[in-house]
Structure formats: C-alpha cells, structure tokens
Amino acid sequence: MEPDRLLLLCRPGYEGDTAAELQAAAGAMGFPGYCRAHADTGRVTLFTGAGTITDFTDHWRLQGAIFPRQAFLTTDPVPLPDRDRVGALLAALGDCAVSELVTETPDSEAGRAWTRLARALSAPLRQGLAAAGLWQPGSDAPRLHLLLDDDGAHLGLAPAGLDDPRPGGIPRLKRPKSAPSRSFLKLEEAWQTFLDPAERDRALQSGMRAVDLGAAPGGWSWLLQRRGLEVLAVDNGPLKGEVATAEGVTHIRADGFTWRPPRPVDWLVCDMVERPQRVAALAADWFAAGRCRYAVFNLKLPMRRRYAAVEECREVIRGHLGSTPARLGIRHLYHDRDEVTAFLGPAPGQ
C-alpha cells in the first residue's frame, strides 16, 4: 500500500471549512495542495501538488487543527466484494505491518448505515492480519484505519501522532439526568482535548475558584461544581435544576461583559451567544489581566466563511494578549455545533 493522500473526517456540513484550513496549512508549509470536499459526508481528502503526502504529514498534526476530527494516509478506496472481504482488504494492504486497528464510518446519515458492517469486520480483519504476520501490537508500526462508506473501504495508515485512536475521533461522554442541559458536554470534552490527564488533575482541584460568564441555565456551572470548584455563575437569567441551589455555586445577576471578579480566579468559562470576536476579546482580556489562570470559551460562528472567522478571532486573541505568554488552542469539538471552543492556559514551563 502506497498512500498518496490524506483523508480527514469532520462534522457534516463543515467540509468546505476543513478544506480551507488544510489548504492554508499546506500552502504555509510550501505544499501547494488541493482538497476534495465531499459535501455533507463529513469527509475531505487532501492531495499535495509537490513532494509526497508524508512530507506534509511529517509536520502537520491533527491535535493542532481546528475542524478535522480524524486523519490518516490512504489511497483509492477498495471495492468490497460479496465474499472474502477480509481477503480483499489484506490484498490491498500488501505487506504493511500494523500495531492497531480502528474501524469507523463518517459521522453522517449515509456513513452510519455502514456502522454494523464496520464492527463486524473488525475481529476477522485482526485475525487475518495476525495470520499474515502483519499484526504487531505494541510496536512502532502505524495504526490501521478501516473507514466504510458508499465509496467503498478506505484503508489508511497513521504513524504515531498523526491520528486520533478513537473511531471517528469522537469521545464517548454520557449526560447524567441531573445535568441542567447538554452544554456541559462541551466543557468536559474541552478539558479532555486541551489538558492531558496530569494537567487536568493539577488544574481542576477541589476548592479552586471559577467564573461562568453567561451561566444560565447552568450546565457549565453544574460541571464545575461537581468537580469541587467554587463557582460564581454570572447571568441575568435564572439557573435551572439542582445547580440553582447547589452548595458552592453563587448566582450573580449581572452582565457577563462588564462584571469583573473581586480577586483572580483559577478558571474563566464562557458560553455566551454573542459575536465571536467580542467573546474572544473578553476572554483574552481576562487572561492578560491575570483575572484567570485558565479559560475555556465558545465562539459562535457565522453561516459563511467560518474558517476565516476563526482566524479573525485568533488574531483578536493574540492582539489582546499582547506580550502575555499563553497557550492557545481552538477546536471544533464533537459536542459543538455551529461554534468552536477556545482554550487559554499557561505557556509551557510556566
């Protein structure tokens, strides 16, 4: 198998934004690449016009991207025969040894129709790889991806650091019945995305203080309180459910854009429906002024030119940070809709 392209998965409807982001990244690295965006499939393919695709992926990483959820190197899809599908897949793979197998489908209506077959092929394909001497778990061999959709079977290889080990790059989070809204899932996913387990333990300790701007109905405040943080929930609207009377949550009826804390806090979180540039400036100002050590904030996106809007917000944040050292991340999370989630934290070594 000789991969000649990079296949990426994203939220359906965001193929154009993913393509714009990848083409900009390729151009910045000196690879005049072009993307094929498959509308409403949640799938984008990047081809590079100079050098090989691995010259690009040696320098690009999924974890630093905005819109893609999954990425792997691949070639033309393999038509699946009615019989001996594993044999057809092994023949297409050739003599490539692999360390893991991820079977997945695009996050679309058409893609989900292939989920049962993808799962059914998982165990037989592992057995076939082992019988062929290609199954080498624990080695530094690339991870093998098997993506099924209407175009056939996309076999892909991902060296360490390129892809997401979760099928489709999708986290599996549950919503407890006591949660006042599903919005808390965005904050939980943001913590898992931007903080490694050790940093989560350090940054989310019982007794720390947090401010939730635009808190109502209270999903993010509820999650912060469950983690043991003292929460100032700032919103003129009411909190709902158990968070409204929860110990450690203080509801402050005020405008989130003008209210300021009496002393610095550990966390600022913000999920207000407002122009993304205004929210970006607000969060960056809090961080630069030392009012918070960490910040997670959502940026609501326009219907058009969403990648361009995110880059505008990035420049707004950098402008308001000035010389303040910071670690900035922006991702279109699985639990986001027409928005992206941004993170600000201490720069490495601080």
Give a nutshell description of this structure.
By secondary structure, this protein is an alpha/beta fold. It has ten helices and 14 strands. The protein has two domains: 5-169, Alpha-Beta Plaits, CATH 3.30.70; 184-345, Rossmann fold.
Describe the structure.
The protein has 350 residues and is an alpha/beta fold. The protein has two domains: 165 residues, Alpha-Beta Plaits, CATH 3.30.70.2810; 162 residues, 3-Layer(aba) Sandwich (Rossmann fold), CATH 3.40.50.150. It contains ten helices and 14 strands. The strands form two sheets. Strands 2-3-1-4-7-6-5 form a seven-stranded mixed sheet. Strands 10-9-8-11-12-14-13 form a seven-stranded mixed sheet, with helices on both faces. Helix 3 packs across helix 5. It is elongated, with a radius of gyration of 22 Å. The two termini are 44 Å apart. The model has no long low-confidence stretch (mean pLDDT 93).
